[in-house]
UniProtKB/TrEMBL annotation:
It comes from the Bacteria. GO terms for molecular function: FMN binding; oxidoreductase activity. Residues 11-251 form the NADH:flavin oxidoreductase/NADH oxidase N-terminal domain. Signal peptide: none annotated. It holds the Pfam family Oxidored_FMN. Keywords: Flavoprotein, Oxidoreductase. InterPro entries: Aldolase_TIM, NADH_flavin_oxidoreductase, OxRdtase_FMN_N. The keyword Aminoacyl-tRNA synthetase does not apply. This is NADH:flavin oxidoreductase. Gene3D superfamilies: Aldolase class I.
Length: 406
């Protein structure tokens, strides 16, 4: 048990993350950009990540780089293939020019994948209906899992070729690996179902494959993972089971850090986001019949949870107490006081999403403020940015700050 976590007093100090060094301990979390209409890098995507890089973050995370065409949540997302590398190289070079590092979030969406827009079969632990795509995901075979695992390794190699400093493996939100971890979704009776040990095989196997690929390529990039602490639904991934999974991942030695997250993209997304539930705006983002269903039952799907700073800290503390490896605190990090609290409690890094969408230069403003701690985020947690991921991700209150566009 890690009963005496390290205490870092300055979130703006340099930090080692595996083999790389970040200029500070602040990471822009993966938030889908809706800037890749042809599943390739665009100038819009480059600008999306250059802005927070210029704005002071230590690292920005590209969301999301699927490992296969059928692993995307929608057909206009990037999937890792040789044709994507030239554009990804331009993206990484632009971020590096601003002094920041850049990570590629790699994963397979599993039952969250949109089989209709992907024009490819989705995978799940068991046959599963996705109401957003109006398609069934097929029960993944052992061969399917082997292919997906190998695709993660290939994606990591392509990330290295593209100039990324890190990869973040998506093990959360009931994407494929997370859906296998969930006792609610994973009703299999073979070697990938039943006990937590069996249900964790996909996640552990994927991490092991990525680590092996990175090591064989020289071990020059960091490997992190996004892991659900809880799905926020009865019968889903519980904190106790997630903690045990995290311990296995630590023992396996494949990760340089874990970013702790929560919530299910399938049944309870607001458990991660907290704040207002924009049901009307979500309904407006879809065509009938999905828009009709969203207006009718949207309040049940988008359950509302009150916002507070560091709202995942209570659960994350239990991981910090039991694990020795670096942890990234996510959820309600918008000001210097909250960052300092995370450092004092032994978290090596903090990750920010919506606050940086509202103000890409927020970190520079906080740094310039020094000890005054007077800078407050403009984000109101209205969450109206969430439905914009189906068109062009942006803050509906601030848009893109002209001062940083060049």
């Amino acid at each position: 048990m890690n009963t005496a976590p390290n205490v870092f007093t300055d979130v703006f100090s340099e930090a080692k993350l595996g083999p790389i060094t970040l200029r500070n301990r602040i990471i822009k979390a993966a938030t889908f950009e809706a800037s890749t209409p042809d599943a390739l890098v665009t100038e819009d995507l480059i600008n999306y990540h250059r802005l927070p890089a210029a704005g002071g973050v230590g690292m920005t995370t590209v969301a999301y780089c699927a490992v296969a065409p059928g692993g995307r949540t929608d057909g206009w997302q990037i999937w890792m293939r040789p044709q994507a590398v030239p554009g990804l190289q331009k993206l990484t070079e632009a971020v590096h020019a601003e002094g920041a590092a850049i990570s590629a979030q790699i994963g397979h969406a599993g039952p969250v994948a949109n089989a209709r827009t992907n024009k490819a079969t989705a995978l799940a632990p068991v046959r599963f209906f996705n109401p957003l795509s109006m398609r069934f995901a097929k029960k993944a075979t052992i061969d399917d899992i082997r292919e997906v695992t190998a695709a993660h390794a290939d994606a990591a190699r392509l990330a290295i070729d593209s100039g990324f400093d890190a990869v973040e493996i998506h093990l959360g939100h009931n994407y494929l690996a997370s859906s296998f971890l969930s006792p609610l979704i994973n009703r299999r009776t073979d070697e990938l179902g039943g006990s937590l040990y069996n249900r964790a095989k996909v996640a552990r196997g994927v991490v092991r494959a990525v680590r092996d690929a990175v090591d064989k390529a020289g071990g020059t990039i960091a490997v992190t993972a996004k892991l659900n602490m809880s799905d926020g639904i009865r019968g889903g991934i519980s904190l106790d089971e997630s903690l045990q999974t995290a311990k296995w991942l630590e023992e396996d030695g494949g990760l340089d850090a874990i970013e702790l997250t929560a919530g299910s993209s399938l049944v309870n997304p607001m458990y991660l986001f907290r704040g207002d539930a924009p049901v009307k705006e979500f309904a407006g983002a879809f065509k009938p019949p999905i828009s009709w269903g969203m207006r009718t039952v949207g309040k049940g799907f988008l359950r509302e949870y009150p916002y507070r700073e560091a709202y995942l800290l209570r659960e994350a503390r239990q991981f910090r107490a039991e694990l020795k490896m670096p942890l990234i605190l996510l959820g309600g990090i918008t000001n210097r006081d909250t960052m300092d609290k995370a450092m004092a409690e032994g978290f090596e890094f903090v990750a920010m999403g919506r606050a940086l969408l509202a103000e890409p230069d927020l970190i520079n403003r906080i740094a310039a403020d020094g000890d005054a701690h007077s800078v407050k985020s403009l984000c109101t947690h209205c969450n109206k940015c969430m439905p914009t991921i189906y068109s062009h991700t942006h803050c509906v209150l601030t848009g893109a700050p002209d001062a940083l566009v060049r």
